Structures
1.
Amino acid sequence: MEEETVQPQGAEGNARPPQAPAGGGISRARKIRLIVLICILLVLTVITVLYNVKLNRQEKARVQALATALAELRAVIKGLDPRLPDEVLGTSFVQADLLYRRIQELDTRNRDAERLAIALCYARGHFDQGLERFNSLPVKEIAAEIDGAVRRKAAHALDPFQALAADLAGAEIHEDGKQFLRQCGFLWGLARSITEGAVGERDKALLLCRWMALHMLPEEGDTVPADPYLAAWRSHGSAAELAWAYAELARQVGVRSKVAVLPPVESQDEWQHLVQVYPGDAEPFLVNPFLGIPFLNPASGELLSLESLAGDAEPYDALLGLAGGASAYKAEHFRAAELRTALHPYACFPRFMVFDHLLSGLPGRPQVAFDFGTLPGDEGLELWERPVEVLRQMQTRRYRELLARANRALDLVRQPRLLQLRGHYQGAGALYDTVTESLAKALAEAEVEEGAALLRETIEQAALFSAMNAYDSGQWQEAEEQLRQYLDDYPAGRWQTVARPLLAETLSQRGAEAADALWRDMPEARKLYGALRLKGLLPMAAVPGTAVSGGPSAGSDSGTPAESR
């Protein structure tokens, strides 16, 4: 039996209404707690929003600061002109270092900064550091930034030289490549120094030709073949070596040229090597680096091209009529000439094209890779085979042995000679004095005639280089004294061909009439130069400039690059 449910009674005996469950309402305490929780959540939300806003502002500020620092670093690198005074360059390098550190603080893995750092390293001559950075970059990715047509032209240029094909695949630059980069920097600084003050590419080409006449000893034969760097610091070379050296110096200051290879003339076995220059501000003209002259019409002074010499012999006949003539060339030799581009094969390799690409921010930058973008359409590049042959020979043990034997004497004067070519004339002059004293002492103590002969040869060359250094620095009186002393001490010396025109130029700078007599009595290899100089058809020397400071040099980092590979 179910129990009855008894309804609770009120005071009057009436039933009370049902009560709400105990949890059915929100107590005041709970409401307060809820409000507090909501407020906390709102505060946290506001704090989070404000924090994110602050982070966004900081990120935007960081990105903006990074972009500004990169732009400023690019601007500093763009202004690193080696012709600036030392104190200006020093300030620029300090500013660049501070900007680079600032960029690293803002972004430790910024690739743009690493790429800019390579140009900065090269400008300062810090090759080892620059190469280390370069080898850490994704070279193949950067290569994709170079126009595909340009890369195809570069690969096509090396088609005739399949032995070099294996080198095309490599991305890193190792010791051989480092030597190539050093030499490009050295020749760049030398060419800029030679052409300082020139107005336009035509004048640059003429000043380079004049420098060859006054600084390079022309010699027949090439028992130890030399590239442009080796020929420049040794200061002598065959016709082919001087043609390559001239073409490379011209390339480093933006002047296009091609080597003209002519068939042998009568009584000679070697093919002749001239250089046709293509200045952007004048018509093409032909130069002979071996003689140090441009081909011109002696009556009008008009510069002559290979084509004009091949087509019209009259101006050339007049040139032949001058003292010393030009050579035994005939019009048919010019018509048979083959034009080739004198280029180090490495200038075609992708990794060096990438390195050249990374140097694009430098003013008047050194030319590492050949500018294949200048070739119209799919035009091929007719490479001169000689640079490839010399490169192959340099990589052999036999070549290193020959070079070591040939340089036993010259190595002793290499350090001051390199200083001289880099424009550090005062330091070079002091070092020549020290070297000469040491050599004279060694000669007095020499017991073997072979060793004594080697020392005498070196002392003679040091004497000529020292006089040349005084001339290059514009110290005309000192140059005259040293050159006269050389001519007195070595009346049958090897360097007469260079010393006598140098003395004549020195006297011309001083306004001495005695220069004319010297021009009329030049050594055989300089008779035509003297005849043209007498007629006022060759340029005078520019006022010597200051040292090329802060720029890349062959002596940076780990010393002078070894010629033996």
2.
Amino acid sequence: MFMPEKMSLIKILVPIDFVEETILALIESKVFHNISRPGKGLHAERARRNMVVIEESLSKIDQYIKIFGGKVLKKETDEINPKPDSVSLFFDEIMEKSKIIDEEFEEILNLYREYETKISELDVLTKYLSYFQDLDIDLRSLFSGENIRIKIVAVSVDKADQFKKELDKRLSEYLFINRSSEDLKEVIGLIIYTSDKETVLNDMIRSFRIRVVEIPEKYERNLSRAYKDLYSELVKMREFLDNIHENARERYEKIKTLFQETYSGLHLLRDFMKIMSHSIFTDENVLIEGFIPSRSKDKVVKKILSATRDMAIIQVRDVGRLDKLEEEPPTYFNMSRWMRPFKMIPDLYGPPSYNEVIPIYIVSITFPIIFGLMFPDLGHGIALLIAGLFMYKYFKDKNVGISDLGLLITYLGISSSVTGFLAGEFFGPATPVARFLEGFYEDLHIHPPLSLPIYKSGAGVVEALYSFILLSVRMAMITLLISSFLGFLNSLINREYDYMFALSLPRTMIFVSLFIPAFFSNDINEVGFFYSYISLGQLLTVLGTPIVAETPMIFEIVKWILNISLLWILIGESVVDIFRHGLREGLSKLSSGFMELFDTVIMAIGNSISYLRIMGIALAHIAVVISFYVPVISLLYSPGILEQIYAWSIYSIGNLLAMTLEAVIAFAHTLRLHLYEMFSKFYRGTGRIYEPFIPITYHIETL
């Protein structure tokens, strides 16, 4: 569950007459992952050339689909249907069909590209001139005047002020009429200047990289009329483009079956040629290599032998975690649909390696919990839950990535709702519903476990802050201990015994010693004293001024675990080198051990303190909500209707802004704690994604 599935390296030696049957059987097995090493032989070279032709044909067909607004639907099948009797003849047949499609669509594609380019150019020009459509004056004499000239320029907003200052400095007489453009993020301006400054102005335009708006000769130099003509032409072009869409759709409907057969056939040929291009050919035989899941090897062997009439020689070798091959096996692991959203988090680091622990299962627990602690609000959590469910449902069949993101937001919304209930917050900590939640806890004679009542005087604010600090420290110790242990486990799996002995194991023990005090007591003073004793207390004892005369036995045990672990890191690498290379070589490693010790101490302190952001962001959330809730309260108690409207408007807008911004901030900081504090201790993310060949039929629907 926590490790990638075991893979096997499969090598198939088959007579060249059976190569097609073998490759088709591998595709039908749905588990074969090609080796990345380039193949050898004339057939492999021919397959690489064929792949170029196939890719070009697929690219063209994808563009045709775009023209008529088609939607490609994929359907995984158990068998290739129809299975070609001869792939070489099938290739010729599909290429002929592809030519028929090109004859039907190539002319319309060129026309579409031409008009799409013209429309994009005219669209920008029309937007520029729209800011001067009220200027109904003939400016022809100024565009190439002998004494006075005019230019239309588009200046980026960040350069506009500096450009204006430069105009003041270098042009003695000029007029700059500007119109700002929020959507284009530019300032559109008319510069009227004396013709003797043409060279100076052109130099400025080049140095500031300013766009000069050129009006084609066929349009009038009356900006109002030019805009109207451009807009009219743009409308006509878009209508013509719509006609092209409709024409393409009609053409597709006439050859729909041939179109879909060709599209599916090209994808099958691409997979076939890819396997072939990585195979090794001789005059009589071919060697095909790749990876398959070990649990599927019997099924694959049986299928290949059946397809080749027992003419294939097959060698299947299970790949151990430490086996050194020319290339590392791909990483394959089963994952339920509901856990897939958490895959995107470690993927930011990279795919897991074949010989390391998969972090998705840990992340699926820690990520929602930490996010919820940073963003504890029942109302905001429910809003996130609804938004996430909408994204998941709406994009489920349209965009898998957005759908998965929606499912992740749903989980985070649930987490925020739970922590919000525990904090007694509903769109803030002082609303009527929040007060109802507080009453619920009062009836139970308990305090809301995650409440931070900074809006109440004398409400145990300091105690609540201490509780949240302790909670942040405990989350730090749990996740950092798990991360360190996973790092130890990875070094053990990979049999990196030197690293495991010298660094991984003692670092894990250090976090064990830091973990125990965090759960020693619910009183932060006692926890703080425990940490002080095992750190600062030791220094004071050495100086002859111990903190206390007697301490519990657990204090002494933890102190010695920490001391031994730190000493271990200092001398561990030296000890290993002494046994391997002798005393002199080992002692030379003491300086390296000191640097590792220093790095470990800084890392442990820094990582632990970093988790206090959980408390900080939770506090910031409450402070932001309170900041706009206080004026809302004063308005709500006003007698006027207008004040009531203002109150609810401020309340709604404030909550929307707070929820959006704080959710993004909480997500970013939760992500940071995982990518830096956690993953840096155990996760390499240098693997390759398992991408087996699978027979798929393609259906194209017009929208």
3.
Amino acid sequence: MIENTIILEKFLSKNLSKQGLVYPLIGRTHPNAWGNSFCFLMCALLYEKTKDKKWKEKAVVSINAELTATKNRFLDKNIFRWEFKNYSFLKLYPLLLKNNYDKDLIANVKDRILKMQHIESFQTNWIAMRALNFLLRYNLFNLPQDKKNSVKELEKVLKRQNNDGLFWDYIYQNSFQYHAYILALLVQYYEILPTIKLKKAIQDGINFLIRVTDNNGDFNYYGRGQKQIFGYTSAIFTLSKWYKITNDKNYLSYSKLIYNFIKPYIRKGAIVMNKDQKLRAGWYKYNYGMEYLLFAKVYLLLSENFKQIKLPKITDLEIYFPSLNMFVKRTKEYFICLSGNGRQSTEVGCLVNFYPKVINCSGGPPINLIGTQRDYSENYFGIVKNNKNPLYCKLGKLNKKEKEISISYNLRDCKIIQSFNLGKKIILKFKIIPKTNLYIKPLHYVASHKLESSIKCLKRGKIITPEGISNVFESEKINVNKPMEFTVILYKSKSESNPIINKLSGISDVFTVRKFVLFKITEFIHFFKILFFKLIKNPKDFILMFSYNQKRDLYMRERNKNY
């Protein structure tokens, strides 16, 4: 996984200073962010593999800058990213010992590790980082309390896996990207301290990951962080390591399939899998702040080699995930993912993913807009009412017939039924049943080309999506005062697909109001305990953390302005 290193070498030669990594988009170092720490870990790994002294020199520069940043963390108003930084130091320390770095530097790094703290975020990926960090430190220095803390944090993570195998990152947030990252952390945990319970959780999580991966190797199309290299490289690492643990080559094959999907973008030094990098389309503006590129390199360097392995054989698959209200069907010709969940803007329901690519419909929050461009929260497949999507953050109900899956939405002023016929032709039938007079545009979609439909659509301009600029197509606005139907042909396959046999049954574990209240109470108790101990041991960090947890939204808005 050393290929494409030349891109990062040129990047570092321009942006690495004695004060740390200079972020090109803001023209200065960002000491409290975690890019610099992953920079020294990447350089140390490259020196380990190549024995080229230039990487050792760059690593030492970054390490010293990071040690200084820890001491001066109160001088920067931004949040100090302890969990990511701790991980980098913990993975670095054995490399320093093995490769004969300066003894004083090693001693300083050890002191930094022994004095590590945490942000204590309640999101699952941060909890998983803390669990792994405590275990890594226990593995290095055999501190009994670290093992206890690690096990305690791990238990919290394992409770956040739903019945379908997905690890949710936060209440009502089902992100495929963060699922992959959590698995990457758990696999590293398992390598040090394996248990039967953890193995089952990882196996269930990997099974889910493979089932939602389409024929082209794309899985990161749902929830927060779609199309980011962060999620893809986490999955590549996870699957390759699980191959090493289980000796099942199928995992390594899927690791290679996902890598092949992102390889063209890696060669460009891309962070979001977007054809036009100048647009900087992404979930947040800081996606182009460079951390994710360095993260990707680190996790690729830590992955197992799959160059000689064959790609997986694409077989028919059909599965329903009740906890996500999601249906997936795969044949050798196509892959379709449908959902009626849609609680978040990043989880808009209906057609979530389709291969071969027909339509860009991943939804999402406002992004780094250019001029008068529309943000891709408008990137959905459905109808338009008052210039908005009436299904935005609404829950639909999935039903099935022999070759048909339907999603029905019972709204205040109408009922909408989207029926997907999965025969030789993939046909979507829309049915709109008004409860009052409606003035709507019955069909709206974002695609590279116009789809064949029984209702006339016109090109209405262009829109930025995570995959580049796409065309917007919409029908005329009409009055609907009685039930209406129309069809859209999504794909014409060469052969007839098998009937849908799934009964759309299973145990759902969707959050109820009671579960939501209990979760919030648990979160409050968690923060109260952490704040209390920080106040006693590290009062300055207590102030910083308290500010973070109370004003995080404001902080994120201010940070985005800087990019």
4.
Amino acid sequence: MDSGIVHSTGHRTLPVAADRWTTLAACSVAVLAGLVLVGWVLGIEPLKRVLPGLVAMNPTTAVTFLLAGLALWLLRDETTTKLKRTAGLGAAAVVLAVGLLRLSVLITGSGPAVDQWLLPTGAVEPTGVPSSMAPNTALLFILTGASLLLMGSRLARRVLMGEVLALIALAASMLALIGYLYGVGRLYGVAAFIPMALPTATAFMLLVSGLLAARPRGPVMALVVSRRAGGMVIRRVMPGAVVIVLVLGLLRLKGQEAGLFEIELGVSLMSAGTILLMAGLVVYIARVLDRLDIKREQAAEELRLSESRLRASNELLAAILENIGDGIVLADGAGRTLMKNPAAERLLGSIGDGPCLQWTGGGVLCTPDRAGAFPAAELAMGRAAGGEHVAEQEQFLKFAEGDGGRWLAVSAQPVVTPSGQGAVIAMRDITSRKLIELRLEDENDLLESLVASRTADLTRSNQDLQQFAYVASHDLQEPLRMVGSYLQLLERRYKDRLDDEAREFIGYAVDGANRMKQLINDLLQYSRVDRKGGNVVPTDPRGALDDALHALSAVITESGAEITATPLPQVAADPAQLRQLFQNLVGNAIKFRTEAGPRVEISAERDAEGWRFTVADNGIGIEPQYADRIFDVFQRLHSREEYAGTGIGLAICKKIVDRHGGRIWVEPAEGGGSRFNFTIPDKQGVHHEHRIAA
């Protein structure tokens, strides 16, 4: 009974095994009494008396044992319900009453013969005496009934009295069993009265042992079930000592009855055997105690080391708390301060110990915007005391005097304190950071206002420029058409009258007017990229490329260009502008060709920016130092005599790519020529494979 999980009973400990034994004992008593009653009803002698020639258990005795077992089972738990407690006390009272009535009849010779009520007519014992309840049986019912009643009490004094009565009953029932073991009738019989039956003595032994195990608060049972050395020694030594004495006594008795030795020799052998076995038992006890002492010393040493480590840890923790810049406060659920470090008082002022959630040294905790007091239910400490984890809650501590204050970042964690649920709070002064944030917010507001104003001005300026470009292009187109028309008319009418030099001058003037017209058209087209751009929708680049190549069909045929394209992915784009982009890049590749004949390859592959399209050619190429310059308006690397154009085509390409959120660049191609690359944000599409040969 010294192992297992234990329940607390006052300041003692009761093993689970003790509670189980009480239940087992109560059930065993009830089963034993039930078997005896079955024996009486069915006439089965072994059930009534165990062995032939022995006294049978009286039927009334059996019923009384049933009630005693029921009372023990109902009262075994101190926390039992009121109904069970009342029923158990009632059954115990009946047990006590049966014992008192039977003992009074034996003493006075008159009264109700309760032990005869359930007997069949003519029921007698082997000795010829009518079956009845023995005097010592009645006395034990009085002791156990009273002990059961006292066990149901919640007063320690009454429980102690019940334990004393139970111990007396235990001793009496043990004497009766020893008497049956050694065949000594005076141990289980009283004078000429009918003796106590063997089943009766066994039932009393079970009943009383279960009763003692149910309430181990008395001085004897508390020692028996104790987990300390005394209880361990009793539980390990007592059974062995009892068995040793009983076995040696029985061996001596049987040896003498068989004539193996005389009384003197039997006593000597028993004494010697008892001494040897008890000496071995004492050695065993000493060994157990020695092991316990070793374990105690080891535990004491471990405790000393643990205390030393704990003391060092506490000193380190105290040094950290003393020197750390963050304020640390330990508080219980009501806000009472259990521990604080110097930094906490530097931040909050004098921290009181009263039950207040806003211990601020006289100041007031406000919301971070300083608009008003922080709601008490939302404070980090109160939330943590309720089991919540709070991190970096911003609070503004407004000083009691003046308009000053400081911002705090407060974190809190729930913790169990000696007085129950509490919280540990860590706080940091973030005033400098907060002031910088406020200053940045003001500057950001000002900057956003300036940006909004500049954006509005720029938007208006762009609109004005676009309108100007549109109007200027239309207004300039008319006089240019007039100049060109009249120059051509002058050339046709007076061609024969003008000399070669005059006709050359007129040719220059017409060419300049045409170039001016082309320049205006290109500028108008450039301005329309943003102003007249269409919606960005899922677009098949293959269709845009086909349209571009159709527009360039004459140039492709004339130059003998070979154009190939790999599968192109569907992208989100403006179809018209994507066509213009392909047309400009492929047209440039054909224009800036070598004598070998132009070859152009269009391909696409995925990269980190989305889809990267490449238009590679075998043309004259571009020097790396001019790679960025060629995308600016009016930037030309060759004279008009070498290559025609206005220098706006690649600028239009860049503006289209910018509008789609991508970028465009050029790099030398392997083996000569150029590779123009541009990206468009990724949109998975269907690939189509084509090959075009001009």
